[in-house]
Amino acid sequence: MRHIEDLARTAQARSIPRYSSFLSDREQALAKAALDRAGCTAFRFDGGYPQAERRLVCIEPEDSWSDSPLRCVRLECRQLAGAQPPAHKDYLGSLLGLEIRREALGDIVLPADKPGTAYVFALETVAQLICQELRQAGRTELTCSIQPLEELPEFPEADRQTQTATVSSLRLDAVLAAMLHCSRGMAAELIAAGRVEINHLPASSTHAPVYEGDVFTIRGKGRFGLAALPGKSRKDRFIIEYFQY
Fold first, then answer.
1. How far apart are CA 195 and CA 218, in angstroms?
2. Domain annotation covers residue 156
3. Of the candidates 151, 181, 210, which is a domain's last residue?
4. Most buried among 44, 54, 76, 230, by the most CB within 10 A?
5. What digits encode the pLDDT tens for the residues 59-84?
6. Distance between CA atoms of 9 and 14, rounded to whole angstroms?
7. Are both 78 and 143 inside the same structural domain?
8. Could you tell me if 143 and 175 lie in one domain?
9. Is the pLDDT of residue 239 over 80?
């Protein structure tokens, strides 16, 4: 937050644009608070496409030029017949293998209608490095090229399958156990170990109430959204509808 405030003060004092590295959704919430505290209003979040999860803070005072470091690299697989194209983890692992810091990378998009093609959003210098050095993802050879942002295809919304479960109470441990298909004891252990966040804030109590629209991040397990609370079942248990990001 101090870093974002410093960027905002520099941008406003010198009327020049300033940009952060890529931020997670939690970091974006903290950045928004820091910008509000600094009295900065000339900012936006940009991840390269409308549905981006990881995004830059772009602080651009009025009459300043735009100098965004955001770039996109298009990766094309040279895959053998019948071979499966690389998955998200394969691309990310290969990129981190180049000793690229995670905050220099944005989303990695694998369009369902273009198997074997991936779009990597990155800072400008990193995008150049990817084009020069990245040759494969997993065991699949790649070709890389800079993709102009204005020529990006329209990426469809992620298809998230909603699941339904019943819980004895709308407590964090009970809901977490249902989402992870584990025991409440195991869910309690995850909470006690500091591995659970609700709406990007650490959760420390198994008794914490949950509400419709909450987002649960479980380190090492994934991220889940509580889509709806339709009511109770015939056995007087609470019905929850949720999905995994």
1. 6
2. no
3. 151
4. 54
5. 999 988 888 999 999 999 986 666 78
6. 8
7. yes
8. no
9. yes
Q: What is the 3-state secondary structure (H, E, C) of the chain?
A: CHHHHHHHHHHHHHCCCEECCCECHHHHHHHHHHHHHCCCCCEEEECCCCCCCCEEEEECCCCCCCCCCEEEEEEEEECCCCCCCCCHHHHHHHHHCCCCCHHHEEEEECCCCCCCEEEEEEEHHHHHHHHHHCCEECCEEEEEEECCHHHCCCCCCCCCCCEEEEECCCEHHHHHHHHHCCCHHHHHHHHHCCCEEECCEECCCCCCECCCCCEEEECCCEEEEEEEEEEECCCCCEEEEEEEC
Judge whether 224 lies within some domain: yes
Enclosing domain of residue 42:
2-59
Model confidence, pTM: 0.74
| In the predicted structure, residue 160 carries a pLDDT above the cut 90 | no
Encoded tokens for 183: 């025991």
175 close to 212: Cβ distance less than 8 angstroms: no
Rounded Cα distance between 112 and 118, Å, is: 10
Q: Is residue 17 part of a domain?
A: yes
80 within a domain of the structure (yes/no): yes
